[in-house]
Automatic annotation (TrEMBL):
Keywords: Glycoprotein, Hydrolase, Signal. GO terms for molecular function: hydrolase activity. Residues 54-384 form the Sulfatase N-terminal domain. Residues 1-25 form the signal peptide. This is Sulfatase N-terminal domain-containing protein. PANTHER family: N-ACETYLGLUCOSAMINE-6-SULFATASE FAMILY MEMBER, SD21168P. SUPFAM superfamilies: Alkaline phosphatase-like. It comes from Nocardioides oleivorans. Belongs to the sulfatase family. Pfam families: Sulfatase. InterPro entries: Alkaline_phosphatase_core_sf (IPR017850), Sulfatase_CS (IPR024607), Sulfatase_N (IPR000917). PROSITE patterns: SULFATASE_2. Residues 234-266 are annotated as: Disordered.
Amino acid sequence: MRAWAQSIAAALLVVLVATLATVTAIDGSGAGSDAVSLAQGTQAPADAAAPTQPNIVFVLTDDMRDDDLDHMPITRRLLADQGMEFTDAISPHPLCCPARAQLATGQYAQNNGVQHNRGEHGGFQALDPTREASRWFRDAGYQTGFAGKFLNGYHPQDARPSGWTRWDALTRGTYDYVNFTMTGDGTPTRYTDSYITTVIEEHTDDSIRDFAATGDPFLVYAWHLAPHYRITPEGGRSLPPAMPQDRGTYADQRPASFDDPAFDEADVSDQPRYLRNLPRVDRDEVQAESSARLESLQAVDRAVGSLVQTLDDSGVLDDTYIVFSSDNGYSLGEHRYTGKDVLTDEALQVPLVIRGPGIPAGTTSDLPVTLVDLPATFADLTGVQPQWTIDGTSLVPTLMGDEQPFRDTTLIQTGRTLGDGWSHRGVRTERYLYGTDGTEAFLYDRLADPDGMVNVVDDPRYAEVRAALEQRRAQLVTCAGWTCNQVFGPLPEPAP
């Protein structure tokens, strides 16, 4: 039975519970009816045309750590508490443009062509704009709307990706927060005194209202800038600015990274080259950056609340899957490093929460999922047919509370601007993190060393483990479709 058909009964149950909650609030026997309404959804008005397929709303942040979600109470209450949180989700190519290209195509970089933010193999110019998964939905009768940051290097004169009914992407001042231009769905608009998160929020809510009024199913992407650091049009770089009401609210918040044994690691002599020569960490700088990032995310948190309210007011909340994630994680001083684009757990790990019809509320999954799995999942939830080979696996069985077989080894990689466009490429399993740039390699035993402090790649006890992981890596770096999702079986144990 199709996943959407399986979820109808569960969706009806959600509607029934929400309706009872509404009745209770009306007769005065309950409290907090607004919170119940937003958390559980409300029955659609009698005159609202219910779509024959579910809607998808996808909220994406930029450079958000998975533990940052602990400081977004609205998002936790309305999405995590009412849906499923994936506790081992990663961005397998942890850099803005390649990560977003994976989400746009459902493919790894070896298949979609985007290996870096810039250079011959990077940026928007490396992506075929006709191979954008939104067209699957448009061709299936969906209204599709995009608001926010697309791929690095997307400019006003560039082609509009083919699948969007409404297209409002950042083009100039993409990282400035307050001085930027958006495509305006064909009429470019320059903003000089508006806050980017608020603008994306308003455009997202407008699209939801307009699409819901048509009675057609819709796919809406709200891709935010926060908590990425600010880059002015002149090239200056600074901490992400928060809205006035949020400034200083996290000034005294201790960064989660301070409690990681890998923070400001004393001995990095065995680490890969990109970590080996870093200076010791300035704790005050990390504190300031962490606080600014959390403060910038508060506007995103409110935007999530606003879109849930808009869906509810439009009578379509119970027919909508809401997905929240980030394009990559971010290191704040672990292994002395601050940033992304490295194959460490801090850069790979991202938040991922999905709420919608049939998904058990307040549940978690430790399935080792990736951003590449999301387009496959969206297609499966809606019954839409992908129009090319995709590299991810649908998460629908897990979302509906069923067991599902899943790959035991995941491809992870980073690119570069020169040469063949590749830097480090490796694999991640439940126990191991392994990679190489062709000249040096790293291997971490995450069971014995969960913080990645000891590189055992040259330890003779791990020789067979390394050889087996290298065989898997060699297969996966050219994978496409099902070959990216193999179950290789148990790995050898380290020698005693």
